[in-house]
Amino acid sequence: MSPHWTVAIGNYPHTAALKSGAVRSEALDLEFLEIKPVNRAFAPMARELKFDVSEMAIATFLQAKAYDKALTLLPLVTAARFQEAALFCLKGRPIASPSDLKGKRVGVRAYSQTTGLWIRGRLSDDYGVPPAEIAWTTFEGAHVLEYIDPPFVKRAAPGQDLLKMLHADELDAIIVGNDVPDDPQLRTVFPDAAAAAEDFWNKNHFVPINHVVVVRREHAVNQPDAVKALVRLFHASKASSGRPQPARDNCPFGRAAINPSLTTAMRYALEQGLLPRALSLEEIWADSPVLD
């Protein structure tokens, strides 16, 4: 009998065939749950193993792994993008480049947010601004309950939000997520975000991963063939999307394609105080099916 698994993943061109049933496997009975936005699935999965399969922010997965949550990473990516266009300040403010953020106040939804992870790494590596030299303001905690923010991070008062604090001169810059505020007073801290993204690519040769796919560890251990069938379904769904394979893939498949981004994300997370200990690639990929 095919296992019945609940699946919490977002709606993308590369998951459409999978979610519609256009690609399927007799080895699996999948129930797709519509959770919008999909990031609302991350905390229940990290804390309670709420689903059998779930999309998850890469920062959340790394924290979950470090705190020994019973999750297994699959060699699948649902979302990746260059992050430079998510760092904003107000027009007219004396911030000419990211290096000017040293000693400044920056707000982000959560310190563990993946966009923040990538931007902080870029600020530290390329602009000489380590995380501790910015006063961070957050609005919620991490998806992994055990994690506690570093001492240079403070929580905003109830009822506050990023834009309100930015316009009130309580923040100098903000990091947003997928949805960029419709505010004509905003400008990117990177003077040319597209050029900064090109610079990142030239240095690193990968598109930073935002979301991966995880499965309960018990399934990976006890039903490895079913998990392999699931991974192949994702791959088939991507292949059937009808979109040409871009040179800079925003949903890479397989360990080899994912490892450069994963390795850098792990280094950033450790340097930024997001992890209690270092993780090896072997540990990160433990129990995951090998298909490439």
What does this structure look like?
33% of the residues lie in helices and 18% in strands. With 292 residues, the protein is of the alpha/beta class. It folds into two domains: 4-81 and 209-284, Periplasmic binding protein-like II (D-Maltodextrin-Binding Protein, domain 2, 3-Layer(aba) Sandwich); 84-204, D-Maltodextrin-Binding Protein, domain 2 (3-Layer(aba) Sandwich). The strands form two sheets. It has a six-stranded mixed sheet. The chain has a five-stranded mixed sheet with strand order 2-1-3-11-4, with helices on both faces. 43% of the residues are buried.
Sum up the overall morphology in one term. Answer: globular
The CATH architecture designation of the largest domain is 3-Layer(aba) Sandwich
Mean pLDDT: 96
Number of domains: 2
Helix content: 25-40%
CATH level-3 fold name of the largest domain = D-Maltodextrin-Binding Protein, domain 2
Radius of gyration using CA atoms only? 19 Å
SS-based structural class?
alpha/beta
CATH-level-4 superfamily name of the largest domain: Periplasmic binding protein-like II
* Main pleated sheet: 6 strands, mixed
- Extended strand count: 11
Order of helices and strands: EHEHEHEEEHEEHEEHEHHHH
Beta-strand portion reads 15-25%
